[in-house]
Amino acid sequence: MARAPGEAGATPAARAESVGSRARARALLFASGVLFGLLAVLARVATRLGLTSGQVATVRFSVATVLMLGMFRAWPGTFRPYDRRLLAARGILGGLAALLYFIALSLVPAGQATLLNNTFPVVAVAISYFALGERPGWQLVLALLVTSAGVFLVLGGGGPGTPFGWGHVAAIASALFAGGAVTSIRALRAFHNAPTIFFAFSLGGLAVSAPFALGPWTMAPAAWLAALLGALVALAAQLLMTEAYGALTVAEAAVWQQLTPVASYLWAMSLLGERLSAVGAAGVLLGAAGVVYASIQGRRPPEAEEA
Description:
Blueprint: H1 12-48, H2 53-74, H3 84-107, H4 110-117, H5 120-131, H6 138-155, H7 166-188, H8 194-209, H9 221-244, H10 250-256, H11 259-271, H12 278-298
Helix pairs in contact: 1-4, 1-9, 1-11, 2-3, 2-8, 2-9, 3-4, 3-7, 3-8, 4-6, 4-7, 4-11, 5-7, 5-10, 6-10, 6-12, 8-9
């Protein structure tokens, strides 16, 4: 199994620090997944109440951009861009992924949209293999397959007659762009801090979504409240995810992010009344089992991780 970055040939103290860093990263991704699940519900509520997908995305990225500019002003030197081309790629890819995801949320249930969007790990692991030279061990590949199987079980929980429409297509397209985006995060985290990377994402997302926000905007307070809360939740979730990618490989982080669709379904069931069938529940449990398995394998000592 592939070692975590910087672990090969490390001293016992450095290895212990690396294990601690990975444990912290897993905790950050867990919290990120819970928040991203809530974001899906808030975005769906906002579009139900009159805002378009482009407008919801524009609100999200406008709030993030303003807050990040305030952070950079308050703490000079926080914004440290080195590879501007890679930062731009992260912004555009992430912006397209987010916009398509919001489009999917406006057309299909929050749980289904999030599940399809979270097939991006398959793309991310493939890209990281060629772009970053990360070779996940068979344990993580198996865990990814198990969690992905759980995702599709939940998607098929509505029975064979469940229609497959443009919302599902948008969610899949979102996953393709997200795969490239998270791989760029992994590459950028080697020499960029999380706020700098997130700011690039915010600018890219704003540039991509603004053209789709033209036209009349609803003045319904509830729609704006959902959109603004979603923007703040997304800000926290994205920063946590970006920070976590500095200590985990794309493969392991991708497996942990399968918690997002589980959280999305739980939030949607609680707040929107969306239902989950017995088959879907089995899929949720299967996905959780994959995450637990990945965690156990990720905690194995370096001596036991030889490929």
